[in-house]
Amino acid sequence: MGDSAYPASWYAATRDVSADRPPLAARIEADVAIVGGGFAGLHSARLLALQGKRVALVERHRIGWGASGRNGGFVGAGFAERSGALIDRLGLDHTRRLYAQSQRGVAIVREAIDALGRPEIRMGAGKLSLSRTDQGAGFADRTRALADRLGAAFEPWETARVRTLLDTQRYHQAIHDPLSFHIHPLNFALALAADIEACGGAIHEATEATGLSREGGTWRLQTSRGEIAAPHVVLAGNADLGPVQPRIARAVLPVATYVTVTENIGPRLAEAIRWSGAISDTRRAGDYYRVIDGDRLLWGGRITTDTREPPRLRDMMRGDILSVYPQLGDIRIEYAWPGIMGYAPHKMPQVGEIEPGLWVCSAFGGHGLAQTAAGADAVAAGILGDDSLWRLFAPFGTSWAGGPFGRTATQLAYWSLQAHDWWDEKRQAKNAETLRT
Ligand SMILES: Cc1cc2nc3c(=O)[nH]c(=O)nc-3n(C[C@H](O)[C@H](O)[C@H](O)COP(=O)(O)OP(=O)(O)OC[C@H]3O[C@@H](n4cnc5c(N)ncnc54)[C@H](O)[C@@H]3O)c2cc1C
């Protein structure tokens, strides 16, 4: 068997060798059929295989081909929707339980990396969420109060502390989450896949699920050249599910974001960034970055509903980096790649049983590394007979994302949010100037 190429990225360049898995070319039976070889499908398959279920997973391309093999690599609790908005919508008790499930997702990732004997997949610990505007004197109390309400581990850091670690005037206060960490996501996906097979699960790459029908208590998942008959099916295809279940496919909006990795920069990177954890800013569409490979900067950012790669992606991203750390000077971007996140209109994942034996685990947006594990844990528990976890996600049922019109609306909303971010920063700069003069 060969080892077919992945789209060019630093992750692909440093990935484990992994032979192509044969396409499905027969009719097979399983306890659970799973569509999608990203983290949502892989965690679902692994958690069920560990419980003795016979799982069969199909992936259109290769394991970790989609968002799971291309992301920023940050693993942390919470969801794409902000916790404050969830409290307003669901009340504190429900939000606390959802947050606890996301913390369970962090624990599943941590425990899996340990159980797989691959400690090097974890590349750094802790996460800083930085504000680009001054949050004022009440910031620390507000942050501690929210952490307390959620049962979260995060804590406030004042501006002075942030600036001892990051040599830029761009940032003010931070929220520090000591339980977050960052990983090599493609190697984690490949390691999960190998473990599923070691537990007796079947994985077929280059296999697209094309249709789904039910006969009595059995689902039949059609693929290009085969079929899986199973009492349970898990749809974990993110924003790319296609015709296998059009209702879910239409409910998830594809949103592109970009990641770049610089050349080895040398000692000036450690002078600018003296923090080995993950870093992001709290703007509505902010930057996220981390130091990798000693002295490279992995920098992600921007979102758009135009899923084509922009022609000047490297220049755009270099400009973003230098707008925060101009002292890095003439840096070369060695890798640049796009990735697609799947968002439901409510920004929460779609997790649960939508028809008897038909499960969905999708739409994790830009917060998916721990959350896919949390969703898979809830789905696996449901298949094993405990409905309590997936029902936490029931208020976020599948709703239509609006097709091309939804995309236009999302893009307009994004531009308006960017304009708000820009305006907040300008207004603060002007206020600071007025105070100085
Ligand atoms: C650039 C980028 C940066 C990100 N950074 C972070 C981060 O730092 N931290 C974080 O928590 N989250 C981050 N995310 C989000 C996170 O990566 C995703 O939420 C998560 O990986 C989604 O996993 P998934 O399994 O649902 O989807 P995917 O990884 O996209 O997997 C879905 C798979 O299903 C396959 N598929 C779809 N339909 C079919 C079909 N019909 N038949 C067969 N196969 C099919 C696809 O080929 C694909 O491989 C980022 C996302 C991107 C794109």
Provide structural commentary:
With 437 residues, this protein is α/β, with parallel strands linked by helices. The chain has a single domain, classed as FAD/NAD(P)-binding domain, CATH 3.50.50. It has 12 helices and 19 strands. It has helices spanning 10-13, 39-50, 83-90, 92-115, 139-150, 159-165, 185-198, 246-251, 267-272, 313-324, 371-383, 403-436, and strands spanning 27-29, 32-35, 55-58, 74-75, 122-130, 155-157, 174-183, 202-204, 209-215, 218-223, 227-230, 232-235, 253-262, 278-281, 288-292, 296-304, 333-343, 350-355, 358-362. The strands form 3 sheets. Strands 4, 5, 6, 7, 13, 14, 15, 16 and 17 form a 9-stranded mixed β-sheet that branches. A 6-stranded mixed β-sheet has the order 8-3-2-12-19-18, covered by helices on one side. A 4-stranded mixed β-sheet has the order 1-11-10-9, with no helix packed on it. α4 packs across α11 (371-383). The longest helix has 34 residues, at 403-436. The radius of gyration is 22 Å and the shape is globular. The termini are far apart. The structure holds flavin-adenine dinucleotide. Flavin-adenine dinucleotide is lined by residues 35-41, 58-61, 65-68, 70-74, 208-209, 236-238, 240-242, 244, 257, 259, 288, 300, 339-341, 362, 364-369, 372.
Approximately how much helix is present in the residues? 25-40%
Give the total of beta strands. Answer: 19
- Overall 3D shape: globular
Global Rg: 22 Å
CATH class: Alpha Beta
Name given to the CATH homologous superfamily: FAD/NAD(P)-binding domain
Largest sheet: 9 strands, mixed
Named at the architecture level, the CATH assignment is 3-Layer(bba) Sandwich
CATH topology: FAD/NAD(P)-binding domain
Name the bound molecules: flavin-adenine dinucleotide
Quaternary status:
single chain
Pick out the low-confidence regions. Answer: 431-437
Coarse structural class: alpha/beta
Number of domains: 1
How far the N terminus sits from the C terminus, by CA atoms, comes to 70 Å
